[in-house]
Amino acid sequence: MTRILVAGSSNTDMIIRLDRLPRPGETLLGGEFSTSGGGKGANQAIAAARAGGDVSFVGCFGADTLGDEALAALAAEGIDISGCRRDSAAPSGVAQILVAADGENCIAVAPGANALLTPADIGSAESLFDGAAAVLLQLETPLETVQAALETARRHHCYSVLNPAPACDLPAALLPMVDLITPNETEAEYLTGIAIENDSDAEAAALALHARGVKDVIITRGSAGVTLSRQSPAGQVSTCHRPAFAVNALDTTAAGDVFNGCIVARLATGEDLADALPFAQAAAAIAVQQFGAQSSIPRHDDIRHFLAERRH
């Protein structure tokens, strides 16, 4: 089984680049404006497809020009969009992104039709779960829809990955259905109450997530790298930390999405989770050196070339 199913959001990103991020109440002039395809679900689906995955996408789009363009972009990547639905009750999702010269960003999202993705849509797309190696989910669509997707993934014996972004309170019944959770430091702190300032903090947060029922945990930590923690069926926990690749970050938008899409693409080939980390980290490192979300997502050969260069 090599097919990947991504269910989630799609947005059009409206990006303004500035020397620095504005303070509350401040207006800054002189920023450069551009638009790009985005949304955590669509970003992750495209990342997985460019990394070599056979990807299907389930999402809801408005009956508007932005929806036309977003669906066309997914199809152009070879992604199966048969599980997508159009709804005239809301516009397609948009995100306003401010990007500073040092690569940091802040993002405001108007979810639009993403908020109309329902458990019934998951039911309509159930045939796509059959035979899928992995199901990748985020939290930019309704929580009950995410839960329905996890339940469906479990019925079809799919390996389920939850990127818990944006962070929110999760019901106790949800996390035990997740095979792998991939929070960043902020999201891990939100879920566990543990502020992550070093490796020990990351290990403690991972243990807290294991205690809530998750088997595998990856905490992405920006320039500090990643922490992988795995719990065996017998309850034994093993942890490793991998440093980040040192690069000049211009725009961190979608770096986490690229990481998640590439992790799932490697898992779908049968690669072990620990062995998949360098590939996903390399993909994210390439992405942050370019502006935009989907426009910055690298392809399989680019990632392999980056890794080969770093080994020399």
Please list the strands of the largest sheet in the order they lie side by side. Answer: 4-1-9-10-11-12-13-14
Classification by helices and strands: alpha/beta
Integer count of domains: 1
Major sheet, described briefly?
8 strands, mixed
Low-confidence region ranges: none
Average pLDDT figure: 94
Radius of gyration: 18 Å
In CATH, what is the class?
Alpha Beta
| H-E string | EEEHEEHEEEHHEHEEHHEEEHHH
Secondary structure: helix percent: 25-40%
Subcellular location: Cytoplasm
Binding site for K(+): 251, 253, 287, 290, 292, 296
Catalytic activity: D-ribose + ATP = D-ribose 5-phosphate + ADP + H(+)
Domain Carbohydrate kinase PfkB: 1-298
Which secondary structure elements does this structure contain, and how are they paired or packed?
Layout: E1 3-7, E2 11-17, E3 32-38, H1 40-50, E4 54-58, E5 60-62, H2 65-76, E6 85-87, E7 93-99, E8 105-110, H3 119-124, H4 126-129, E9 132-137, H5 143-155, E10 159-162, E11 180-181, H6 185-192, H7 199-211, E12 216-220, E13 226-231, E14 237-242, H8 255-268, H9 273-287, H10 300-311
Parallel strand pairs: 1-4, 1-9, 2-7, 5-6, 9-10, 10-11, 11-12
Antiparallel strand pairs: 2-3, 7-8, 12-13, 13-14
Helix pairs in contact: 1-8, 6-7, 8-9, 9-10
